[in-house]
Design a protein that fits this description.
Blueprint: E1 3-5, E2 21-23, E3 34-38, E4 45-50, E5 55-60, E6 65-69, E7 75-79, E8 86-96, E9 99-108, E10 113-116, E11 123-127, E12 136-140, E13 145-149, E14 153-157, E15 162-165, E16 176-180, E17 184-189, E18 192-200, E19 206-214, E20 221-228, E21 231-236, E22 240-245, E23 251-256, H1 267-273, H2 277-280, E24 282-287, E25 291-296, E26 299-304, E27 309-314, E28 322-327, E29 333-337, E30 341-349, E31 388-397, E32 403-408, E33 414-418, E34 423-427, H3 429-446
Parallel strand pairs: 27-31
Antiparallel strand pairs: 1-2, 3-34, 4-5, 5-6, 6-7, 8-9, 9-10, 10-11, 12-13, 13-14, 14-15, 16-17, 17-18, 18-19, 20-21, 21-22, 22-23, 24-25, 25-26, 26-27, 28-29, 29-30, 30-31, 32-33, 33-34
Protein name: WD repeat domain 41
Keywords: Repeat, WD repeat
InterPro entries: WD40/YVTN_repeat-like_dom_sf, WD40_PAC1, WD40_repeat_CS, WD40_repeat_dom_sf, WD40_rpt, WDR41
Length: about 450
């Protein structure tokens, strides 16, 4: 197994000059061999949003929104306006004639919503005195509207005019939303998923109504994502993972992810081996339409939504909770954690026959509605000869605090944000050296040589 380490901090715009430490004879499959530390925030950075191929925005608990150039590391704009922490941020792209423009929408604990122009840094629109803080944002490009989720679900047009809203909900409010077919939205509210439908009435007036409430989870829903046009998924605090039909909202598959149970018959020892709730909690889900990754406690679990089976797993992928994951084009995946690391994984066949190749830490897949048993579902050994493991191929060490999330710009690099108030752009040293050489040659040409 190959592992490499990157570290060190410099001022904004500087590049770590120390050579990267490689352990092993092979060269790494990943090329994050140079880092650039970006400074500008003075509190936890929680959100990264890609604006275009070269720019991204960062935001967090200091209420600032900063716009950056990923290639140069330059801080382009500083968007000030919120007095408290940012609670949600998204990009909003709309087309007018032949022109396409991307704006930023931010929500804050100060109970305001803002629309920003990342070209000028101007706050174009703002809504204040909301009834509650907005926890999530969803853009419905086809309908040219966007949705905010707090204690109410509110639908807005691109001019920040409220089109319609739902009734007041549970005190916990809406924590996540995804778009569904037929002008529907799935919203996570505590243990329930509420299906809303948007309807266009005579005179082009929009209305929103609750049409179904799915109460199959036994604990708070922490993750909600679209899988493809026909499926979406949800994950709960106690390790329940449900795949839903996106059209008729029925359960396509249900799994209760549990740690491996003790083999002893002694009840006291079994109780001692019982997992803590945080070890089973599904913090985040991601999917490429065929595979889905669940960040469960400090572990990673990869599922095929086609065969509805476990493909690969790593019970302990990090030293603490995994906060964000991403599937890579080469079949691997990336994860970041409260332990401050970003790790790159490769799916490999299990080498030893003695290693678990059964349901192991998982419950069985069942079809239809959950029976909502008080205890964990009955375990059953499944024949899974194709089950694989996740092997560590890269470990990016640079942050001193929990890494909240990351966003990839392909060959231009990867950007991470953290509780240490920093952002780091991870890049390919070879590519960056080549670009610096080209820039130097161009400068020499402009100046007529040395």
């Amino acid at each position: 197994m190959l592992r490499w380490i990157l570290g060190g901090r410099e001022a904004q715009g500087s590049v770590e000059k120390n050579p990267v430490l490689f352990i092993g004879e092979e060269q790494p499959k990943n090329w994050f061999t140079e880092l650039q530390v970006l400074k500008g925030h003075f509190d936890i950075v929680r959100f990264l949003v890609q604006i275009d191929d070269f720019r991204f925005a960062s935001a967090g608990d200091d209420g600032l929104v900063l716009v950056w150039n990923v290639e140069t590391g330059e801080r382009l704009l500083e968007l000030r306006g919120h007095s408290q922490q940012i609670t949600a941020m998204t990009a909003y792209t709309h087309t007018s004639g032949e022109n396409t423009h991307t704006s930023l929408i931010t929500a804050s604990s100060d109970r305001t919503l803002s629309l920003w122009d990342p070209e000028t840094g101007n706050r174009v629109q703002t809504v204040s005195d909301l009834q509650s803080s907005v926890k999530c944002l969803l853009v419905l490009e086809r309908l040219c509207v966007w949705v905010s989720g707090g204690n109410e679900l509110c639908v807005w047009n691109r001019d920040f005019q409220l089109q319609c809203q739902s009734q007041h909900h549970h005190d916990t409010g809406i924590s996540a939303m995804v778009e569904l077919p037929k002008n529907c939205i799935a919203a996570a509210m505590d243990k329930d998923i509420v299906i809303f439908r948007l309807t266009m009435s005579t005179g082009s007036r929009l209305s929103v109504a609750e049409v179904r409430r799915l109460s199959d989870h036994q604990d708070s829903i922490h993750a909600l994502i679209n899988i493809n046009d026909g499926l979406f998924a949800s994950g709960s605090h106690v390790g329940e993972l449900i795949l839903w039909d996106a059209v008729d909202w029925t359960i396509m598959a249900y799994e209760h992810i549990l740690w491996e149970e003790s083999q002893t018959d002694t009840q006291a020892e079994i109780r001692l081996a019982a997992p803590k709730p945080s070890e089973m909690s599904i913090q985040q889900l991601t999917s490429d339409g065929e595979l889905m990754v669940a960040a469960v406690g400090s572990g990673l679990y990869v599922y095929s939504v086609i065969t509805k089976s476990v493909v690969a797993y790593r019970k302990t992928a990090h030293d603490s909770n995994v906060l964000h994951t991403m599937l890579l084009p080469d079949g691997g995946l990336m994860s970041c954690s409260e332990d401050g690391s970003v790790r790159i994984w490769e799916m490999q066949d299990l080498l030893l026959p003695a290693e678990p190749a059964s349901a192991g830490f998982f419950g069985m897949w069942t079809f239809g509605r959950s029976n909502k048993q008080a205890g964990p579902p009955v375990k059953k050994v499944l024949e899974l000869p194709s089950l694989r493991t996740l092997e560590l191929t890269g470990d990016l060490i640079g942050h001193s605090g929990a890494v909240q999330m990351f966003v990839s710009f392909g060959e231009k690099g990867l950007v991470t944000c953290s509780t240490d108030h920093l952002l780091i752009a991870w890049k390919n040293r070879e590519r960056e050296s080549h670009l610096r050489s080209l820039a130097l040659f161009r400068k020499l040409e402009e100046n007529g040589g040395l």
